[in-house]
Amino acid sequence: MDLALAEAHAAAHREEVPVGAVVLSANGVPLASAGNEVEERNDPSAHAEMLAMRKAAQVTGSTRLDDCTLVVTLEPCPMCAAAAVHFRVRRIVFGAYDPKGGGIDHGPRVIDHPTCLRHIEIIGGVREQENGLLLKNFFRKLRR
Amino acid sequence: MDLALAEAHAAAHREEVPVGAVVLSANGVPLASAGNEVEERNDPSAHAEMLAMRKAAQVTGSTRLDDCTLVVTLEPCPMCAAAAVHFRVRRIVFGAYDPKGGGIDHGPRVIDHPTCLRHIEIIGGVREQENGLLLKNFFRKLRR
Question: What's this model's pTM, rounded to 2 decimal places?
Answer without folding.
Answer: 0.95
